TrEMBL record:
Residues in Isopropylmalate dehydrogenase-like domain copies: 19-361
Name of the featured protein: Isopropylmalate dehydrogenase-like domain-containing protein
Organism of origin: Boletus reticuloceps
PANTHER family: DECARBOXYLATING DEHYDROGENASES-ISOCITRATE, ISOPROPYLMALATE, TARTRATE (PTHR11835), HOMOISOCITRATE DEHYDROGENASE, MITOCHONDRIAL (PTHR11835:SF48)
Record keywords: Magnesium
Entry similarity comment: Belongs to the isocitrate and isopropylmalate dehydrogenases family.
Amino acid sequence: MAFSAPLRSMATVAGKSLKIGMIPADGIGREVLPGAKAAIQALGSSIPTTEFIDLQAGFECFQKTGTALPDETVEVLKNECDCALFGAVSSPSRKVFGYSSPIVALRKKMDLYANIRPVSSVAPIPNEQPTIDLVVVRENTECLGFSISKKKHRLLGKGAPKARATRLITEYASRRIGEMAFKIALTRPRKHVTIIHKSNVLSVTDGLFRETVRGVPTLPGMNGKYDGVTVAEQLVDSAVYRLFREPHIYDVMVAPNLYGDIISDAAAALVGSLGLVPSVNAGDSFVMGEPVHGSAPDIAGKDIANPLAAIRSAALMLRQLGYRNGAARIESAVDDVIREGRYLTPDLGGKSSTSEVVSQVVKRI
């Protein structure tokens, strides 16, 4: 279990219909998101009547309509939905005129400033402590490229072509993500935060991030709230090295956007597959579940994509909203399927289809 309590004032209301925006987007996103929906539906009356609202976004949406994130999708999320689930996006590695990533835009427009990515192994025996159990808390709104999303700097002259990216780190965003990391640490047994940075080289930007996060416990009004949380720091390159050598030293890792993305993907190797790692994009008034994996076009349409990360993301979303019992039932069912080992997709060495794995999780819920 990554954390045991909702982190914001998003309390559930008994009897209130829960409206969930469903954004499958591209590739295997369309195959794994139905599994997340089935897991939530399997909870039955333990959560309020649930309405799923299908919404559009993604590169294929851009190819069809000229926009990767329709205004209607954002308006429905803001005005009608309590939360959302996002599948995966096929953003091309080459420049495509007029296109920008819809998931990046969604995080900005909905102010989902924290990407929370728990990485845990499944213990051989239920209720035993997993050998890998950490949470990467990734800042979602700035870092490389975010400050110049519309205007690209391209330097021409001798030796052309050249390119330049601008990196933005602010005290405001660093403080918010730092507070989120400390809040999560309070819900975990070890209560330990590691600040990931590269301030020995990037002394201005990473230096500000490091000092701001370190200063969270001393902010006005904290009154010793985080006295029980221990703090360490690690340069990002050595953090990746130690992640593979000594993963047990980490509990909550907090990082700027780019570092957090790299670290969490690397950590997924410790538990067997990106297809197992969930996340939520969290703000102060909205939460959106999102599996960490990409759109995997090489396996799209073959019914072999691993749905467990999407299902776990649904559980994290419910946990953030305060539905802890429902979240725990889904998480337990996923763990049982992994532990049993009979119904696994090819990325985990199995031969089961996406739909077969979903069926087994739903059965156990």
